[in-house]
Every structure is written in C-alpha cells, then in structure tokens.
Amino acid sequence: MAVKLFITGVFVHLFLLSNGAVVADEYRQQRQQMAADIEDDVEIVAKHINKKSFDTMVMQAMRTVPRHEFVPADLRGEAYENRPLPIGFGQTISQPYIVALMTDLLRPQPGQRVLEIGTGSGYQAAVLSQLVAQVYSIEIIEQLGKSTAQLLTQLGYGNIKTRIADGYDGWPQHAPYDSIIVTAAISHIPPPLVQQLKKGGRMLIPVGTRFQTQYLTLVEKDKQGKVTTRKLLPVIFVPFTGGH
Q1: Is 147 annotated as catalytic?
Q2: Among the options 53, 94, 129, 137, which is catalytic?
Q3: pTM of this prediction?
Q4: Residue 177: which CATH number?
Q5: Which end of the chain is more exposed for a tag (fewer CB within 10 A), N or C?
Q6: Helix axes 28-44, 56-64, angle to 10 degrees
C-alpha cells in the first residue's frame, strides 16, 4: 500500500511492499494517470462488456501494484503507458487496460483461488493477488518462469504459487478453481481447464491464432455444471505454446 510522509514541507510518497519493505514511490503519479487512461478506455468498449466502469477494488489494485517492477530496467520510463511492452523471450507484459478488463470480468472475491495460464512478467498475477486468497500461475518458458518467480518472492507476493509447465493441462492438484485466466491466444478452449473450473466459475481466454482474429472469450460454468461461452471483443495476444 502507499503511505505519505511530510518531510521539510514536502509530501514524500512511499510504497509498502507485501513483504513489509518500504521504498520511495516515485511512480505514484504515473500510476494514477495510468488508472485514468484505463477508465477512459472502458467507455470505448462499454457495449461489449455491459458496463461503463470497472470495480473499485480492481482499480485500487491497478493503482497499487508497481508495474515498473515487472518490465525490463531500460523500459521503466514507459512502464505506465497504456500499452503492452516486450519482456524478452518473445513475450509481452499486457496493456494495463487489458489487465484491468480481464481482472474485472473474473469478478474476483476474497477467499477465491485463481489459476493463471501464462505467468509472463508476473504483473497480472500480482494484480489478482490483491483481490483473492491464492493465485496459482503456470509458465512454460523455464528461464522466464524462474526469473519471475524470484521477482514475485522479492516483492513479497506470498499468495502467488508458480510452476514451470505446459499450461494446457492446468494444475489439477489445486483444482477446482473459482476462476481461470489465460494470457495467450489458443485456437480452442482446453478441455482440462474447463474440467478444473469450479461450478459457478468463470474463465477468460483469448481464442484465435496468429493468423486469424482473436476474441477474448468468457467461459462460464453454472451451478449444475453446464458450460457456456461468449465472445466479448477482438484482442491481440502472443500465441499459446506447448505440446497442443
């Protein structure tokens, strides 16, 4: 969380990390502007998501999580621009608006357990960790997964558990999940993920390929276990990789 100290007539903003460490928060104003940009974008797609604003707790998480920690050092000056950025290995950190949108559509609640396919930079997992009890995140690229796991530990995100694996098969040991979020585009919805989704749960997944339109797709499983899908809006994500 952010705190303020009044020193020699000037408010100095500090950032309290999850592990209790306190660091100067020189990016606070940029995060506030990023949040404002996100809120402006909601109006553009309101008809697709049937809402004109995101949940206040979701936006609070967006204003809190230090995105600059999740981008390469040479891109920190661009960390709070409302656009994706490269993080190496052919991967990107998603546009802040997309992170907020997908988080909001999952309808996260305290006490829930969420599965993320595609840890990437760790930013999406960090945002979710502010809103739910536990995040389980899978990354297929070993070097990226290891470095991100180390970063999340350093930043004190103790309720995020990571794993190096092919996300197509999910993480059955911790299933069922209240919600599942997939951060790479795939041609179809993986059956193992549907199976691991709790009754009453929601999954968000970009469906499509590099050469065709991708649609952010909402998968819902009702209390009786019936599954329905709905295309929400066109998106562009890096492709899903793995044996499938």
Answers
A1: no
A2: 94
A3: 0.87
A4: 3.40.50.150
A5: N
A6: 140
